[in-house]
């Protein structure tokens, strides 16, 4: 593999300060560190040895953990399309159909987000931070399949600039950028984000996938619950994920696999995941009304609850940073999500708002724990 | 029975090349150097001229603010150079040894019959007080401020660190005399490891012995203070390295300042890692040359790889260093796809690597690479998991970075030293230079408060 090194070394002067393409220095730098671990060595003072972990590794593990949900999401796009048209093209075709629908979304999300990040990194003369690799994958996962690409592009740009970069980039933002993208879509283009018409792919891909499914309706379990109708999906459907919903959120099992990977690798905090489920389960048990076909615990398997708890509430930058605070932070998110679902007539889904609210409260929760440590120290001094 | 404190947080780093418990002799080059920078917080005033003859125990420089704090020559000979850097900063005062080692005679003393003030005067005269450190700020203390207590940690849990129990052999009487002397000044606490069994440690007299059982950094004196009697604002605690306690005992038992210490020469690039007797300030050339790998770039460290200072083969043994370690520099290594490759040779506290599953019994070879880009603090709980003190490390670091003195005080800055953040700096995935940040924060705070 030495040839990669040779190519990079040859190109380096062109991209360095004073080179012809120095305007793309950050991009080159990102590519170089993508291929090779930087061989910068420690300073004369301080730790001379370092753990092999770096932020790149941590962040790519989150993407690895998302793979089951991504793959299932692709399959489910095809499946829902077939169900709506009353046909069965088989697992492979359904998956390929979903791949065809999802890939452009992923490409648009990455192109827009990374484009902005690289430009800003170049402007600030910094390295490109890898945080957007997760955000850019999360965004297509949490939008309905029918969300137009141009709208997604606008929302992504908004979130990267106004939720992240103006605060100073990865590590400095207050709100989870992927959720800000969704919130932007939710309020700017409400008709694209909820209702019955957004969950089955229409418009493009139709020449490949057979007859058009334009304006086909399919209600999510939460939509049915919100409207007070009987829920027509079996509990098993909601666990496996063969139901309409945002692309990555439907399969409880796929998300659970991701959770296991994240907790095993120590990348996401188990405290947040567990306490979110505890908070959600407690409230769901208490306030779920009698609805035909809906058990209280299905609150945890339908909608974005599990996906949010595993992949979004655990974002270390926007979550609580104190270990004890993480229990409370998770509990508040889980509980709030169910409260919004049950008591807000406007929104059938509450996870997005609950996590954004949790992000908002995280510094306050941290403050309480840190302050108690400070008080202890002050009292000791007396 | 001594009080046992169990510590849960921390990380032991098993490095290859631990020193075998045997002593070898190393021929000295004849050049010795005392480096003022080793004594943090001191402004040196050189009191000798080039060509002056000195004995072991004669002052080479003193602290400008406290001229009674003397920094003495480890060896008898001729002052051969006062090396100066930018703005005439003193880099080192070098002495070329004469033929015979001659000591200044400070006179044998019976510690039991002495008062605290007399002990302190004797330590100042003999230049041993210079080796003390104080919390807050982790600097050489001001002798006129009486300490609340004195802490000695009898072990280091850092990777490749000297095993003090081995160094103690044959020095037990001096060690006890040293403790007796410290106890005259202030209540003295000795922290020992749960693995240490030497009666001179577990049965030390006139001091309060506390046993610490836990992973690195359990041996850090700062961690021990935090668990036994934390430092409050306005209080001063002195800390003394166990090797210095032996120096103190020697001073009172023999009347001489003998700065011979047992140094671990260790690391993956050392051909035969073992212990050597060296004087403080001894040049490293003869120790290093011919005894380390020559097929790659190496890094020689005065001290252990987590808290030591980079030096070169012509450097001098640092005032506080109890080990000289040699690791690969690593700048010639180009690892492909580090963010996803399994990298079985790498050690990590994170389970995104496999070192937790298949630990290398003989130890890891870690080089000096930072192994990642510098980022803002992204992942949470990393510092906390290796910081066994009742302090929020991340919040304290952020207060230091933003220069917020009130927050720093409230969050416990007076209790910490840079070395307490060494393990956190190791595990940090954002590769922030924690020890440098803490050092600069303490310097800033000291300037503000004085």
The number of strands of chain B is 19
Nearest-integer average pLDDT of chain B:
94
Q: What is the CATH topology descriptor of chain A? A: Ammonium transporter fold
Question: Separation of termini of chain A?
Answer: 64 Å
Largest sheet of chain B: 6 strands, mixed
Q: What is the N-to-C succession of helices and strands of chain A?
A: HHHHHHHHHHHHHHHHH
Give the helix proportion of chain B (percent range).
Answer: 10-25%
Name given to the CATH architecture of chain A? Orthogonal Bundle
Low-pLDDT segments, ≥5 res of chain B: none
Number of domain units of chain A: 1
Tell how many strands the DSSP assignment of chain A holds: 0
Protein described:
The complex is a heterodimer of chains A (382) and B (450). With 382 residues, chain A is mostly helical. Chain A has a single domain (56-372), classed as Ammonium transporter fold, CATH 1.10.3430. In chain A, 64% of the residues lie in helices and 0% in strands. In chain A, helix 1 runs antiparallel to helix 2 (25-35), helix 4 runs parallel beside helix 6 and helix 6 (149-164) packs across helix 7. Residues 207-211 of chain A have low confidence and may be disordered. Chain B is of the alpha/beta class and 450 residues long. Chain B has eleven helices and 19 strands. The longest helix of chain B is centred in the last third of the chain and has 16 residues, at 434-449. Classes of the chains: A mainly alpha (382), B alpha/beta (450). Chains A and B meet through helix 2, helix 3 and helix 17 of A and helix 10 and helix 11 of B.
């Amino acid at each position: 593999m030495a040839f990669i090194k040779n190519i990079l070394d040859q190109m380096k002067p062109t991209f360095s300060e004073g080179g012809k393409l120095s305007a793309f220095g950050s991009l080159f730098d990102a590519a170089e560190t993508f291929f090779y671990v930087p061989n910068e060595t420690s300073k004369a003072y301080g730790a001379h040895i370092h753990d092999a972990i770096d932020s790149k590794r941590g962040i790519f593990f989150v993407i690895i953990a998302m793979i089951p949900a991504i793959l299932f999401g692709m399959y489910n796009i095809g499946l829902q399309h077939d169900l709506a048209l009353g046909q069965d093209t088989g697992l492979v075709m359904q998956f390929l159909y979903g791949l065809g629908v999802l890939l452009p979304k992923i490409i648009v999300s990455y192109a827009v987000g990374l484009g902005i990040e690289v430009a800003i990194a170049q402007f600030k003369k910094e390295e490109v931070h890898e945080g957007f690799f997760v955000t850019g994958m999360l965004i297509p996962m949490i939008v309905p399949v029918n969300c137009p690409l141009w709208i997604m592009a606008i929302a992504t740009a908004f979130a990267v600039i106004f939720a992240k970069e103006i605060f100073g980039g990865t590590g400095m933002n207050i709100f989870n950028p992927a959720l800000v993208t969704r919130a932007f879509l939710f309020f700017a283009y409400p008709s694209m984000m909820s209702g019955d018409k957004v969950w089955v792919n229409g418009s493009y891909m139709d020449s490949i996938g057979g007859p058009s499914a334009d304006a086909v309706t399919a209600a999510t379990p939460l939509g049915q619950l919100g409207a007070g109708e009987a829920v027509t999906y079996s509990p098993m459907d909601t666990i496996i994920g063969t139901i309409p919903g945002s692309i990555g959120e439907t399969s409880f099992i796929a998300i659970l696999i991701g959770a296991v990977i994240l907790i095993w690798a120590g990348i996401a905090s188990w405290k947040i995941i567990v306490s979110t489920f505890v908070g959600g389960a407690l409230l769901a048990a208490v306030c779920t009304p009698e609805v035909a076909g809906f058990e209280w615990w299905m609150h945890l398997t339908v909608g974005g609850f599990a996906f949010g708890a595993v992949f979004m509430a655990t974002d270390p930058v926007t979550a609580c940073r104190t270990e004890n605070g993480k229990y409370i932070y998770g509990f508040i998110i889980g509980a709030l999500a169910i409260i919004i679902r049950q008591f807000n007539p406007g929104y059938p889904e509450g996870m997005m708002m609950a996590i954004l609210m949790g992000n908002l409260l995280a510094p306050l929760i941290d403050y309480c724990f840190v302050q108690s440590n400070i008080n202890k120290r002050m009292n000791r001094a007396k | 029975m001594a009080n046992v404190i169990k510590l849960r947080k921390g990380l032991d780093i098993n490095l290859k090349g631990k020193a075998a418990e045997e002593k070898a002799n190393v021929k000295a080059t004849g050049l010795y150097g005392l480096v003022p920078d080793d004594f943090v917080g001191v402004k040196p005033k050189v009191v000798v001229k080039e060509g002056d003859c000195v004995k072991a125990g004669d002052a080479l420089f003193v602290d400008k603010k406290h001229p009674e704090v003397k920094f003495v020559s480890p060896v008898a000979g001729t002052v051969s150079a006062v090396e100066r850097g930018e703005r005439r900063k003193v880099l080192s005062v070098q002495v070329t040894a004469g033929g015979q080692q001659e000591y200044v005679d400070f006179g044998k003393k019976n510690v039991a019959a002495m008062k605290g003030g007399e002990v302190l005067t004797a330590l100042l005269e003999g230049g041993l007080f210079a080796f003390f450190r104080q919390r807050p700020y982790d600097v050489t203390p001001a002798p006129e401020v009486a300490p609340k207590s004195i802490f000695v940690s009898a072990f280091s849990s850092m990777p490749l660190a000297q095993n003090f129990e081995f160094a103690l052999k044959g020095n037990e009487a001096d060690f006890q005399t040293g403790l007796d002397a410290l106890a005259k000044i202030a209540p003295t606490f000795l922290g020992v490891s749960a693995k240490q069994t030497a009666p001179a440690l577990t049965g030390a007299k006139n001091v309060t012995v506390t046993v610490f059982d836990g992973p690195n950094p359990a041996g850090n004196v700062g961690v021990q203070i935090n668990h036994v009697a934390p430092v409050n604002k306005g209080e001063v605690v002195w800390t003394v390295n166990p090797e210095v306690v032996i120096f103190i005992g020697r001073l009172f038992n023999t009347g001489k300042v003998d700065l011979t210490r047992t140094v671990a020469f260790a690391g993956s690039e050392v051909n035969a890692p073992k212990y050597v007797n060296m004087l403080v300030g001894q040049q490293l050339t003869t120790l290093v040359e011919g005894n380390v790998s020559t097929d790659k770039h190496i890094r020689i460290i005065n001290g252990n790889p987590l808290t030591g200072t980079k030096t070169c083969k012509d450097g001098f043994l640092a005032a506080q260093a109890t080990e000289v370690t040699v690791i690969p520099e690593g700048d010639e290594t180009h690892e492909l796809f580090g963010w996803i490759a399994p990298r079985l040779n790498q050690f990590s506290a994170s389970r995104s690597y496999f070192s937790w599953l298949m630990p290398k019994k003989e130890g890891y070879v870690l080089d000096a690479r930072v192994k990642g880009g510098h980022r803002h603090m992204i992942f949470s709980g990393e510092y906390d998991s290796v910081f066994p003190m009742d302090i929020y490390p991340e919040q304290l670091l952020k207060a230091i970075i933003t220069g917020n003195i009130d927050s720093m005080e409230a969050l416990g800055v007076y209790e910490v030293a840079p070395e307490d953040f060494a393990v956190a700096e190791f595990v940090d995935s954002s590769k922030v230079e924690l020890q440098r940040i803490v050092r600069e924060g303490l310097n800033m705070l000291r300037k503000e408060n004085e």
